[in-house]
Design a protein that fits this description.
Elements lengths: L2 H17 L14 E2 H10 L6 H10 L5 E4 L2 E4 L13 E2 L5 E6 L3 H7 L9 E3 L3 H9 L4 E6 L1 H6 L4 E3 L5 E3 L7 E2 L3
Antiparallel strand pairs: 1-3, 2-3, 4-8, 5-7, 6-9, 7-10, 8-9
Helix pairs in contact: 1-3
């Protein structure tokens, strides 16, 4: 399978496991899982057949480990716009986490903080390099430091997904440090 096909499958998974499962007639359980066989049949019925071995390869080789396979089921690890409970325990974050964005968003972030927008949580990275890559998807990246330890002490709950993305409901501006 060539790299273009892998990317197409990954994008197909994101669309239907995070945002529009109903588009192909699947239903995610409360925790975001769907049976692999149900997913593969639905994909094929909607003109996008996926070989089970290719699906396994996309899940295993995805650079951000966006998906999980377990007990014959598949789900996205985070980033949902549909209602799911990922059933992740509350975790104690490191003192600082990072968020990648672009300069055009800074004015709103300075007044409103970080909000989940169309997703359920704000996504934070444990290192600047990952945050830089995330911000670069929309232009020249700007990396914000989040005082996660102080937020945790103030009562904010953090969770960490299976692929190491830190999730929080929102980040108030007082806990953000801007470059420069």
């Amino acid at each position: 399978m060539d790299d273009r096909r892998l990317v197409r499958i990954s994008k197909y998974l994101a669309k239907h496991l995070r945002h529009e499962p109903e588009r192909i007639g699947i239903e995610l359980d409360d925790n975001g899982w769907v049976e692999v066989e149900v997913f593969l049949r639905a994909a094929a019925a909607h003109g996008f057949p996926i070989d089970p071995a290719d699906l396994a390869r996309v899940v295993a080789d995805n650079d951000k480990q966006r998906y999980a396979l377990k007990d014959g089921r598949i789900r996205a690890n985070q980033g949902h716009s549909v209602e799911v409970d990922l059933d992740l325990p509350v975790a104690t974050p490191p003192a600082y986490l990072y968020h990648g964005t672009v300069a055009g968003s800074l004015a709103a972030i300075k007044t409103e903080g970080l909000r989940p927008m169309s997703r359920h949580h704000v996504h934070l990275s444990s290192d600047r390099e990952t945050a830089t890559r995330v911000g670069a998807r929309r232009g020249k990246p700007v990396v914000l430091s989040v005082e996660a330890g102080a937020m945790h002490e103030a009562g904010h709950e953090f969770r960490v997904s299976a692929n190491g993305v830190w999730l929080v409901d929102a980040v108030p501006p007082v806990f953000l440090r801007f470059p420069g």
